Amino acid sequence: MAKAILYDSTLCIGCKSCEAACAERWHLPYDDKVAAEPRLSAHKLTAIQTFGDHYIRRMCMHCVEPTCVSVCLVGALQKTALGPVVYDEDKCIGCRYCMLACPFQVPVYEWSSRLPRVRKCDMCYARLRAGKPTACAEACPTGATVSGDRDGLIAEARRRLAEKPGAYYQRIYGLEEVGGTCTLFLSAVPFEQLGLRANLPSTPLPQLTWRILSHTPHIASLAAVALGGIYWITHRREEVAAAEGSPRGRSDIEG
Amino acid sequence: MRASLDFFRISIWRVVFVAILLSGLAGLYVRFVYGLGAATNLTDSFPWGLWKGFNVVAGIGLGAGGFTVAATVHVFNLRRYRPILRIALLTALLGYSFMALALIVDIGRPYRIWHPVVMWGEHSVLFEVAWCVILYLNVLALELAPAVCERFGWRKLLRGVKAISAPVVIFGVILSTLHQSSLGSLFLILPEKLYPLWYTPLLPLFFFVSAICAGLSMVIIASWQGNRALGKRLELPVLEGLGRALAVVLAIYLLGRYLDLEDRGALTLLLRNRTETWLFALEISLLLAPMLLLFQHRVRSHPGRLYACALMVILGFIANRLNVTVTGLEASSGTHYVPKWSEISVTLSMVALGFAGFRFFAQHFPIFDESRPQVAARASHADQGVPVGVA
What we know:
heterodimer; A: Alpha-Beta Plaits; 2 domains; two-stranded antiparallel ribbon; B: mainly alpha; Formate dehydrogenase/DMSO reductase fold
């Protein structure tokens, strides 16, 4: 059963307890200065952002079919059966293709480090495996962030939308975006007003490249036969000429 | 051949060369001592910049002349192009080598560059590119090995290398086809980020075709430089043929780009007064102008004009690659990226080293065909037995 996080913007009071809990879980320093930073960065893996009267939480969306996992050429990023997308810093070469490709612009880099790593939320993978909620969900005083089974949280989100239709923008962000994510958002206003991308396709992005990449063996073997054939035909004349003893037929490739 | 006595001669170009290298070294110092953040203007929202866009994505394309001419000469057996084969292979080897060098500078953990060999992320386009490039570097080394063998008189090795040349060349053509197009596939994963003047499902095809244009242009430029700087023979009739092919491939490419824009309904984007529109116009005009010029015989048969056309194609090609990797991604990232001095100086150093490397190999190895007298430009190969410059 895939785990997920549900963040309900209408319940969020912007206290940033989740940020503090997240910093503690990653052993990152957290003070007022860090709290005031609105963006994700190498020392801030989740951020509460303010848009007028509304809050939105930013963190890894833990896509069902993650783009970052598909583009990683060394398999440093992996999708776990439990739901979280995890990062193996010992494999990473630092090409930053995951950062370029992520449709939610989540992975961040330790730009000032001499041996930099990619950083991102891992949905407290170790805690989930131990059956505990994520650090942010545990720290949230209002229940704006909860963690649990993805199916259960989707049902819960639907229940809230139906119960208070006036309080919510009637969509769940993450239900269909790029094929679905394990981080789900509810909000009172359309998501693009909270700085989220609303132009994402509902099909997983990895399909865009896999469609072509999966044909590589076919293209290669077809090309091998075609090129070999052309070579054979274009050099045939010389073989004939050589057999007839004409000087025209000297092949300087084999020679 | 020039004597190596004038090695220490001071000329304006040498001063420029040394200055570029020194600034490049300074850039490398900042990069390796203070990290990527200090040496580049890259950010979390703009993680790929000049080093990826120019040195890697454009650099590999500039080396496409190697496989194009190798296929022409060996697979299609068009012997007329043999005199420029090694020039093409050398531009490819240098292009790819400096690409690999730039990649080592660009990635966060350079000492792990070998990881893709043992850690497989086979769903990644970059994985395919990495493997193809590693293998193709070996192919290029094998294809150029005859020049080294001839230089040092290793006859046995020469025979061995030539015996396997046909499968090696074919393998190289396949690898090149795959990775040149895959460089375009890299950006297929960015449908909502890359500006629609450039994002198209046909990116791999366009990257492949435009790489052929860039590769052929590099061969023309390298031949011209070899002639001007080293007094090597200019294979004008052969280059004229290349110019002809270049015009046709450019025409196919530009027509394809037009049809694609029309098909996606993206032509109206050209009416918007945006930076992207102007950079797109720049890229297209730098390819359209040489195409129109190269269709004229008086342009193709004139070394200087042919060179100017090839240079335009190269600039248009680089503009295209930078538009796809940098410009076209700026609007969606919400940031504005201008490369830092250290990014520019390292890039320029790679280019300068490429020129120097070409000069060195052209001077000390049989790269240019010197088997025939200067005048007999039209002489057929078959009349002369086995020429020295056979690869």
